[in-house]
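Researcher: Please translate sequence to structure tokens.
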Amino acid sequence: MSNKAHNKKRNAGLLYEFLVRTISQALVEGDQKKSAVALRILRKHFKPGTELYREFRLINALIKSTVSSEAVASSIIGEAKSAARNYDVTSLDREKSLLIKQINHSLNDDNFYDQQINEYRMYATVQTLLNDWRSKDKNIFRMASYEDQLVRWLVTEKSQPEEQIINEESNGTSRLLMKVMTKKLNEKYANVLNDDQKSLVKAYVFSTANSDPTVIQKKLSEIKGELLNRINEYKNSHSDNKYLNDKLNEAQNKLLSEDISNVDDDTITRFMLYTKLSTELNGEE
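Model: Translation complete:
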């Protein structure tokens, strides 16, 4: 086992990353069916209590953590080595095979395993180390070299997510999903959205990732109330402008009729326009 080349299809960390990126990309492209399928696969196979989830958590901790010294890094590697050896390898291999089978059957995406991951080499290094630590036929030279690489990685400062405040409100699947979804949306709309619209996108991402509609509903309610106030203030201070007041009355009536109990992409699109109007009215003031 230890002498085999790294197999990305059996790398727990990469499989998780591939699924998260598939979900976020499908959401950005409006393919809600594909996104739902990928999310269902992720939640089914990476659930607490499974060996696959345990291995993912270990890999993720080694990839994402930053420590203060090489001595601390060496200590963490020792703990990781002990943890990896305590896994039920038979169950872990079976769970990986079932996951790969469902990915291939349900997603039917030829590019699924070819997605670009920034830390791909480190994911490969860590998964290979886990395999070597458990193997009876250890590749000592490779293991020493990879452990040295991991020590250097652990003491390297990692960049902090832009959405740290939102991410800290969640954990596990949702945290990484929010990070990737927000990155994708920002890449697509970075030159188009103002700060208020970006804030709306973040709330929508949070709600989608956590299956928690209350966050986006609260955000939309705030936008709705704020815009209604600004429309009233604008009309009171510009009562002589009949044309603009008629247009604002139309916007006000549409806003009052908005149902935010069931939020979808169309709802967010409309509220993007409301947010832009609110910003414009604020500028006029």
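Researcher: Any highlights?
Model: Confidence is low (pLDDT under 50) at residues 160-171.
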